Write the structure tokens for this entry.
Amino acid sequence: MTAHPIPMLGRPVVRVAEVGSTNDLARLLAAGGVSEGAVVVAARQTRGRGRFGRTWTSPPGGLWCSLLLRPDADAEWGLLSLAVAVAVAETVDRVAGVRSVIRWPNDVLIGTGKVAGILVEAVPGAAILGVGINADIDLHGLPDDLRTPATSLAAAAGRPVVLSTLLDVLLDRCAWWYAAWTRRDPAVAAGWSARDATRGTLVHVHGPEGMLEGVAEGIDTDGALLLRARGGGTRRIVAGDVTLSFGN
């Protein structure tokens, strides 16, 4: 793979007051031949979604956006969502002045509260990176049945968050980590591992094979979760959701 220079992301910025999903709009831009680096930003999503088709509540006050990238055809996709997770975590840290962690594969947490989620979707000739960050949202207005308690940057920082500043920082960090990913830099796995929220912890993994329980032992070089099962042996998990054994 040819090493890429750090790209300029955010050209153009497509802003909309409301959209079903920023990923869906970014898909249309990709199909229309829009160049790499375009970003869709919505004040509100009415049909925001997360992994496995789950609903992502997206009220005003959050940063709901999707980046359009055009990686090489032979790209190693397993680490892309992890690279973006590190970028989002660094963004959270810089804007809120906290230290965030990542729950495999790409949920960004402050303490035990989820502050951001990522959805990477491959489309013909492009990758769409959907990022949702709870910036200044009203946490009391969120659904009661969330898998993980939510938090926000404003709650963590104790002050309002300027969304334009948040977007600028996010684009800068995504550009850096995207470039690292394209050159297959081991810093991606190392950066993710430094923020691993569950290593050494007993977890449940809900995936295509049903529910597995074991101790999380970090990730391999491809970004798969390594799970030491109760009965012995280590399983390599490439898809699934992780929760702590006592539930979160």
Notes: The chain is about 25% helix and 30% strand.
